[in-house]
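A quick aside before the break. I want you to see a complete sequence-to-structure record at least once, exactly as it would be stored in a machine-readable document. Don't worry about memorizing anything.
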Amino acid sequence: MQQCYNRGCGQLFDPTTNSDDSCRHHPGAPFFHDAYKGWSCCSKKSVDFTEFLNIKGCTLAKHSNVKPPEPEKPAKDNEAADKEVEIEVRAPIKESLPRPAIETPLTALQPTVAPGLKETIDSLKISNVAAPIEAATDDGGIAIGTSCKNNGCTYSYTNTGSDYSECTHHPGVPIFHEGMKFWSCCQKRTSDFAQFMAQKGCVYGQHKWIKDDADKKVVQCRYDWHQTATNVVVAIYAKKYHYAQSVIEVNPIRLHVLLVFPEQENATFNLDLELRGIINVEKSSAQMYGTKVEITMPKLEPGSWPKLNFPREVLPAAKKSPTQAKPTTTDESDEEFFDLDDIQSVQSHGLRLSEMSLQSPNGLD
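That is the input. The structure line, written in tokens, reads:
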């Protein structure tokens, strides 16, 4: 007995009784396509492999003990194998630049002043008479209905024992960034202004009915920032600040801004930040508009900054670059507004915004 190798048969046969109609088989080759299994010689096909094996042959012939030839495999492309494989070698990743010291001397930027701001400030008639304190009465007491001066507290003076109850307030400053509103002293963030104003304070203390002298010398301005692939832009929103007395200084990792408000007894807004990344001081620029100050600082190395600055309670005293020029003024008439004594008194009584925003251990920036 011999084994028949015709496809679809596989029976044992006796060569002496092998006739022309002894073997039912498939002369074609099997195919598998789109989950279907079948034979190329007939139209029968199935998705089940067992049913495919049980499909009866479509042709009658003699049994054969010779294995059918296997289908030829596609020849390999020798030319493609002989070609040299080019390996692309990428440039090594550059190491981060060494971070300069925070005490690096500051360089004053010469801002571009908008004509509208210059005209507004030059036409101001500043009075030396201080505005009366609304919270005080003629006899030196506190007027009934005076609101508490602490941020986030809505209590008003009633001249009763409840005036000495605990005051729940926010010691930090309000921050508005990328549509979110929050206090620098706590983590509660919201996009709704009414919810922001209704947020309960995060610390307890005593009510404050009269602003301190230091508070009168400080202006709280809102500031924001954004970045591109090459620049970091800081915008400080302020009106009627003196373009000649205000100062904008930078070093590779620090930004210091001092805005002077002549209509508010030379009160100041002081922003002193240690930047997250390193900037190009030589290409930094500033623009002063009627409603804001915009500082553009090119990045010295590529990459995205996760935040604008590092929170630090106290920054070293600002140093001046020995080679820097004096702050620019557009004409000689501006010199009458520059009084060195006024600047010194502002710096001695002023309070840095960074110190106000870092009174809480949360360390928001």
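Two observations worth writing down. DSSP finds seven helices and 22 strands in the chain. Confidence is low (pLDDT under 50) at residues 127-135, 324-365. We'll return to this after the break.
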